[in-house]
């Protein structure tokens, strides 16, 4: 009977905000607007980084990768969330859930590594400006970005395969907007010790290690800036780092809350905690990708000038 029950789950039901019907319309409009801002804002940054030769530098190459990643990440879950909110269709197939989980986890893992490499880029640019073209040559920064994407994909493939091999015995309701890996693991009716161990290793490699790179990079950057005699130079150095540092604080603040523990054991106020998890998931999954182009463009004169140039550029007949 156990084996029969394990094969019954062929799809999952995404609960989302089904308990709050009045909020769903507001939530739909809010997510739709933010998703459009994500597509337009990040799309403009990608176009600028490709077609403007002034942006063919390591910093803007990483920024273009980050923008492309944000579009991929949100597109893996936001459209289905919008459909479920407006049509009340909340079911997702087993394979569809696995695909959604893979892309979500892969993009999150890759973004952690990219943010670490962007911090290293700023460290070299400010602390070792004369060696910057040598250390971060085109071959070097393209390789760094490629390793980030490949590592994130492999990590996600391992986590997804380990999660989807588990038996799911009857309960197929995911108390989330998307097939988020922690929410799926809660439905498993088998021992998830291996999943916990691999997620702890994953957290160390993709959360803690890049964060240490970011921390020490900014410690050296701060020390170098404080040694500068020119107030203008200090302001310029701070200005080039402020956008990235803001993104790091927002990104890591939310992702650590969500993924630092593989499975929650809280019993008191469970419904309130689940509602809080959903709101934080929204902040991490939609607000952060929306803020990236805003932070990097509004505070960067070069980006604003490039966007104006591209918009005013006449096509050649």
Automatic annotation (TrEMBL):
The chain crosses the membrane at residues 25-48, 60-86, 98-120, 140-162, 204-226, 238-259, 279-298. It is a multi-pass membrane protein. Residues 41-296 form the G-protein coupled receptors family 1 profile domain. Keywords: Cell membrane, G-protein coupled receptor, Membrane, Olfaction, Receptor, Sensory transduction, Transducer, Transmembrane, Transmembrane helix. It is found in: Cell membrane. One of its GO terms (cellular component) is plasma membrane. This is Olfactory receptor. It comes from Homo sapiens (Human).
